[in-house]
Amino acid sequence: MASKRIYKELTECTTSPPPDMKVCLWNESDLHTWKVALAGPASSVYEGGNYAVLVTLPTDYPFKPPTVRILTRIYHPNVTNDNLGNICLSILKPENWKPATKVSAVLQAVRQLLVEPQPDDPLEARIADEYRNDRNEFEKNARQYVTRYARGPPVFGDAPPAAEKSK
Amino acid sequence: MFICTATKLHPSLPSPFHLPNTAAIPPTTRKRKAAEASISSQPTEALPNKRVASAAKSKAPPTPVTTTSNTMDSEEDFMSAMSSDADMQDFSGEEAPSYPFTYFDDDFDDEPDPDFGVLKDSGSKKKVAYDVSFQVYEPADIQRQQDDMVNEVNMILDINKEDAAILLRHFRWNKEKLIEDLMDRRAKVLEAAGLGTDVNTAPKLEPVPGFVCDICCEDEEGLETFAMKCGHRYCVHCYRHYLTQKVREEGEAARIQCPAEGCGRIIDTKSLDLLVTPDLADRYRELLNRTYVEDKDTLKWCPAPDCQNAVECGVKKKDLDKVVPTVACLCGHRFCFGCILNDHQPAPCELVKKWLKKCADDSETANWISANTKECPRCNSTIEKNGGCNHMTCRKCKHEFCWMCMGLWSEHGTSWYNCNRFEEKSGTDARDAQAKSRMSLERYLHYYNRYANHEQSAKLDKDIYQKTERKMVELQRESGMSWIEVQYLNAASQTLQMCRQTLKWTYAFAFYLARNNLTEIFEDNQKDLEMAVEALSEMFEKPVQELCDRKLKVVIMDKTSYCNKRRIILLDDTAENLANGATGGTIYDYFAW
Ligand SMILES: [Zn+2]
Ligand SMILES: [Zn+2]
Ligand SMILES: [Zn+2]
Ligand SMILES: [Zn+2]
Ligand SMILES: [Zn+2]
Ligand SMILES: [Zn+2]
Question: Most buried of the four, B31, B208, B434, B592, by CB within 10 Å?
Fold first, then answer.
């Protein structure tokens, strides 16, 4: 039952992907692991950066939410400042997740988070504080990360990194 | 007791609501009232009656004072229970009665109290500043309150009981608002609560030609579909899966939304019944019942495992910086009504949250590392200081330098003072930051170690309790004292546990206090209590042979009383200062950490 839905979504996402994105499977045999290349949205501080985004659909998808991670290092209040790149997105919280929500909507929400960080619901409290109180410093740091980590084509690695629990 | 409230609110209602006489007070309530009076001194177990408290506490008392009886055993008990019930009517009023969770209880002055040390000494019934009013409800009470409200809505609005319950939940049990809104715009309200009046719109399953389910993407012919009033239609399998997951796995009931993205429509009971298996519908109703407590800000479930009681307390969220609302359930569990954690007086909830987060935070370890390790100025490898000597030699590159100033050791000569002078001269920021971090860490560890020490003792509560029981049995044998005569040990044990719990939190509290004359008073109080507790603890640990000495018994009883008194003084003082902050008086200054 899930595969029919996933296949349909994948087809939609590859043929008409959400803005600034390219979507494909990590490997052809696994419908549940998606690679998304996301270009930092124009006029955001992440402009010019290329981000490797990993989307994992649980076995129980679409009744359980997908997990999304930004594998490329990014300086952002709602993304963990580490190699995991866990994202805090309210629509992905189990209690908020709706089975009718599509991956493309999730991806657009991720993109929107780059345009407009949510410092009130942070994963990185320090960066959130900086975003609120010293926007110039935040933008400087964010741009530095872009230069340092996100300049070239997005790097996904050979195998999808193992999912790691983080709160 | 709900009946009483209803009577007050609707004096004109017909007879079912006019039952505020004694006959209407169910026996269970009376029993509970009596238990309430005794809760104070019994942090570990629920007891139906004060007088048999200690006997009931013991799992197998060798010489029980009396058998436990769940009924009132004197007119006096009954009267006091009655007056408590009468008080309930005014629960939220000015004259709110206090249900002390501490030691105030002089209802039983007619005979010596086995809990002597814990109970006496507080003397008056003066309401102390840290005391909050609360009320414990057992499952039957909770059910009765709901039933009463449902019945009332059923009568006033002429709506069947099932629908009345849905409406009440929809209005989060705000009966007044429900009645008002429903009288104003009945159809709209019914619609919004998922109770459309039109029989034609009763929920039903139906196949829709050309339908494709948006969740599973199935489109087979004849596929049964369902949609709530919002019109978002999905196949019955998806709906079933979704609802089962919500109810079974997430324990959700009253607020299960339509599966559509962004749609806030709540599933109603009738639709749910149509879609899921009967046993899931049962579970759903069970969960619905819980919403009565969860929806009311003045009600909270007792967090003790397996306890099904709820506690009512009027302390508002916004006042939690001024009061620490500790309540005690009938099961004996003492917890904070504000944050549901174990009793954490005198520290306010917010501070407790901060402290626990701080303790859990790895950043402290990071601070420790930065305070105790430095990088070699030449090769940058990490060097840990493990002795008092400031002469450091890098293990890797053999660079020799001074821990204090990071300068070359060779340039230091042999005198410490050289280093000192050198430091004054240059004083780089990096060094200042390190010194600061070291200092703040030392400060934190000072409080943390004491906090953790008392917490450790609290964890041993169970052992201590069992040890006390054994000791009491032994002591009876060795000294010929009666069961009642050895109760003072039980009282001492409980006092120790309670005081340690308080002391533990005084250290977290003190960590955040800025220095002023109030902190000094606070620290004096803390010191007094701690010294008394340690002294009592030492006596309490004495071997049974020594405890046989009746003089020691008197000393222990006195010390127990003293500890309780010190604890009350500390809590009272602190609570008063916290509360005064609200009225523009002095308030504790917190460090902005
Ligand atoms: Zn479906
Ligand atoms: Zn809907
Ligand atoms: Zn309880
Ligand atoms: Zn609290
Ligand atoms: Zn070195
Ligand atoms: Zn030096």
Answer: B31
Q: What are the helix (H) ranges across B391-460? A: 416-426, 429-459
Global confidence as pTM: 0.56
CA distance B254 to B291: 7
CATH value at residue A85: 3.10.110.10
One-letter amino acid identity for B219? D
Number of domains observed in the structure of chain A: 1
The overall average pLDDT reported for chain B is 71
Q: Where are the beta strands (DSSP E) in A40-165?
A: 50-56, 67-70
Q: Tell me the HSE value of B481 on the side-chain side, using a 13 A CA sphere.
A: 23
**Rounded to whole angstroms, what are the CA distances from A63 to A100, B88, B238, B393, B520?**
8, 47, 9, 60, 58
A163 inside domain? no
Query: Which ipTM score applies to this complex?
Result: 0.89
From the options 3.30.1490.20, 3.20.20.80, 1.10.418.60, 1.20.120.1750, give the CATH code of B348-421+435-587. 1.20.120.1750
Architecture of the CATH domain B199-296: 2-Layer Sandwich (3.30)
Q: Confidence band (pLDDT; 50, 70, 90) for A52? A: very high
Residue ranges per domain, chain B? Answer: 199-296, 348-421+435-587
Task: Residue window 250-279, chain B: list those with CB within 8 Å of chain A.
Answer: 250, 252, 257, 259-263
Asked if residue A73 is part of any domain, the answer here is yes
Which one of A87, A88, A89, A114 is the catalytic residue?
A88
CB of A74 closer than 8 Å to CB of A84:
no
Q: Write out the two tokens for B171.
A: 């209005």
Q: Which pLDDT score, from 0 to 100, does residue B388 have? A: 42
Residue B16: strand, helix, or coil? helix
Catalytic machinery residues of B: 389
CA–CA min distance B440, chain A (Å): 19
3-state secondary structure B319-362: HCCCCCCEEECCCCCEEECCCCCECCCCCCHHHHHHHHHHHHCC
Q: Is B309 helix (H, G, I), strand (E, B) or coil?
A: coil
B248 touching chain A per CB within 8 A: no
Q: Using CB atoms, which residue from B218, B250, B259 is nearest to A100?
A: B259
pLDDT tens string B282-296 = 899 888 878 889 888
- Give the environment of ion ligand 3: residues with CB less than 5 A: B 302, 304, 307, 309, 329, 331, 333
Angle at B456 between CA B455 and CA B459, to 5 degrees: 90
Dist. CA B96–CA B113, nearest whole Å = 28
CB-based burial label for B357 (10 Å; 0-12, 13-18, 19+):
exposed
Ligand lying closest to the C-alpha of residue B355? 4
Q: Is A13 one of the catalytic residues?
A: no
So what's the pLDDT on residue B373? 66
Q: How far apart are CA B534 and CA B540, in angstroms?
A: 10
**Residue B479: its pLDDT value, please?**
82
